Every structure is written in structure tokens, then in C-alpha cells.
Amino acid sequence: MSDSGSPAGQLLSGQLWAAFCDDLKRAGTQVLGDDIPRDELTRAEGFRYLTRLLRLALEKHVEFGNPDFPQFYSLSHETAKIGNDNPDNCYLNCAVDGSREYLIRGNRGSVAYLSIETKAGSFAGGGDMAPTGHVQVDRLDVAGNGDFELLVSAREKPGNWLPMAPETDSILVRQTFRDRARERPAELDISCLNPRGDSCLDPAIFAAQLSRVAPFVTGTAGLFRQWMTDFERHLNALPANDQQMCLRAGGDPSIYYHNSRWRLAPREVLVVEFRPPRVCQAWNLQLSNHWMESLDYRYHRISINDHAAVVGPDGTICIVVSHEPLRGDLAEHFPNWLETAGHGNGAMLLRYVGAVEYPPVHTRVVSLDSLWGEGGRAQ
């Protein structure tokens, strides 16, 4: 007979489920704070955000939570997003255990950038997700046809090796595209070389997994809610972030981040100007909503990268963020325009991949009418 206070006992009595529902209900306070914009769109997206985080948390902790039988899945994609997710990326995630050993087999594909990291921790623990190991696949021994194998372990291995630490519990893969229509994504498969359990549902393990779901929802929402509060200090500007802060929240050590916050009145536009680094594997600028979810890039032009951007005669990139698409002469003079997709405020991020210098980024808010004046004078 299970102890009524144990996870198994709480599972049998229904207390575990009741506690899960209560914790999930409390997560709604993240959407109702005084620091949150009170417009209907932000509120609706906030509650939708919680449902999306719930889906991701169930995937992470329950459906794909067995490190003995790991599978790649996506913790950020078109309809569920975390922390200024990159519209140019395909993210893959996987549960692992730092005391096991794993083998990744795959084909590199043709994407611009492919990195694989091991991580420990969770957004539920305050966002401490700095890498415990990191490789760029292009620096590994890869066959001429793109095939490769990668050993993953806490103990160093000869050849292609991705380090873990004893506390490592997940893998994150980033694939960065310049042009999704023309590039071939990587193909990856992973297996545990020394599993200790089996694939059957264990009630005690399930109870522990379910208990982690609501804290993931609340912790993720709370972390990036705090970021947006902090970004108010540099509204409509794009200064460099504290890069260690970005790493602790799951960032890539090969990426340099400029996270910030934007807010525009109905006939205002934001002009962003910078010179891309001379050495840089890729860069992009994106717009997100208040919850740091990228705006819906399936239907709206909300990001631009080094492949698509038009470079000015002096090597400067000029990007215009507008509530309405630019057309005609204005679009000709300002070809790098992005639309806010019905939003009046949100987050934004400029990232450099593999850069060795980090030029300043200049921003200004002007009226749409004055932009017409600038466009008329442009050569």
C-alpha cells in the first residue's frame, strides 16, 4: 500500500492531479500583473501563451521525458514559442541523463548554422540553463555527404564528442536557415548506449514528471515577464544584452544578443540602423509580442536576415518597423521593412551568429509622414 504522502499515494488519491490543477490556475497571475499592458490583444495572447507553455511542458516532462529512450522534439515552433524564438531557426530538444552515454547519428543538411548543446536546469529553476557542452557541427569530422556521428557523455571521448556534466538533463539543437525554401534541414537520431530503465509507464516516475509541468509554465512566463520589465529601461533601443544572462536562459555561446522592447503609436515607425559585423555566419532582426513570442511569421513579415536584407551603399542596414506594410516608392526607398502585425508594443531581438565584433545599433522613432519625406530624398 502506497504512503498517502508519497507521489504514488497522491497519484492514487487524486491529490496529485488536484495540486497540478491548482498550480496551473495560479500561473494565470503572470498575465494579470500591474506591469502587463492592459490591451485586449496582450491579455488574449498572454492566456494563449500559458496554454502553449502547458503543451510544451507536457511534451518536455511527460511525453519525451525518458532519458533512457530519448527522442528529438521541438520546444519552440510556429505555434508554441519561448524567449524571442528565432523565426529562422528549427529547434530540436531531447531529454538526457548526465550519467548515461548517447550516440547522435545524422546528416548535416545545408543550413547556415547547426549547433548542438547539452544543458542542465530549467526555466522553472530561475532560467539557469547555461550550456554544459557545445559543438558546432561544421567543426566536427563530417563525411563528404554530410553524415556524422557524435558521442555525448560526461567522460571525454576520442573523435566527435559533446560534453555533458553529471547534472546535464537535456540537449538543444539549433538549425539556422537563411532561406528555408532552398536549404535542407539536418536529419538527427539519438540513442542511449547504456539505458537502465524501460519504455513502460512507471506510475512513480509519471507522478514526478507531472509535478514539474506547472512550475515550467509559471517559471518560463515569470522569467521573461521580468525581462520585459527590465527592457523598459531602453524602450525602442537595441543595446547589447548581458550575454551571461542570455546564456543562463538557454542562449548559444556563439550568438551575440541585443534583446529589447518596442512601443509605437498608430502613425509612428521605428528605424533601426547598423553595420553588420565583417565576420558573421548569420544575423537577423525579429519582432515579438509582449510575451517574447515571435510574431506570426507564417502570415506576416516580422523578421529579416542577412540573406534577405538590402545593404545600403555605405554598407549600412536600415530596417523600418511599421504598423502597415510599406508600398510603392516608400518600399523602394526602405526595402527592409517589417510589420507589427496589429501590435502596439512587444519585444525585439537582433542576433549575430559567429561574429567577432559587435557594432553599435542605432534606433529612432519617427512619424510615418516624416518617413515619406526621408524616402523622397533618398538616392
How are the elements arranged and paired?
Blueprint: H1 7-13, H2 15-26, H3 40-63, E1 89-95, E2 102-107, E3 113-119, E4 131-136, E5 147-153, E6 161-163, E7 170-176, E8 187-192, H4 203-211, H5 213-231, H6 243-248, E9 255-263, E10 268-274, E11 282-287, E12 303-305, E13 317-322, H7 328-333, E14 337-339, E15 345-353, E16 362-367, H8 368-377
Parallel strand pairs: 5-6, 13-14
Antiparallel strand pairs: 1-7, 2-5, 2-8, 3-4, 3-7, 9-15, 10-13, 10-16, 11-12, 11-15
Summarize the structure.
With 379 residues, this protein is of the alpha+beta class. It has helices at residues 7-13, 15-26, 40-63, 203-211, 213-231, 243-248, 328-333, 368-377; strands at residues 89-95, 102-107, 113-119, 131-136, 147-153, 161-163, 170-176, 187-192, 255-263, 268-274, 282-287, 303-305, 317-322, 337-339, 345-353, 362-367.
Question: How would you portray this structure in words?
Answer:
There is one protein chain. With 379 residues, this protein is of the alpha+beta class. It has a domain at 224-377: Jelly Rolls, CATH 2.60.120. Helices cover 25% and strands 26% of the residues. α7 (328-333) links the parallel β13 and β14 (337-339). α1 crosses α4 and α3 (40-63) packs across α5.
Task: Give keywords.
379 residues; alpha+beta; Jelly Rolls; 4-stranded antiparallel sheet; globular
Our estimate of the beta-strand percent is 25-35%
Q: What's the CATH first level of the domain at 224-377? A: Mainly Beta
What name is given to the CATH topology of the domain at 224-377? Jelly Rolls
Side by side, the strands of the main sheet go 1-7-3-4
| Biggest beta sheet attributes | 4 strands, antiparallel
Compressed to H and E, one letter per element, the order equals HHHEEEEEEEEHHHEEEEEHEEEH
CATH architecture of the domain at 224-377: Sandwich
Roughly how much helix do the residues carry, as a percent range?
10-25%
Total beta strands: 16
Taking the alpha carbons of the first and last residues, their distance comes to 81 Å
Structural class: alpha+beta
Radius of gyration: 22 Å
**What are the low-pLDDT stretches, counting only 5+ consecutive residues below 50?**
none
Number of alpha- plus pi-helical segments:
8
Q: Mean pLDDT, nearest integer?
A: 95
Basic shape: globular
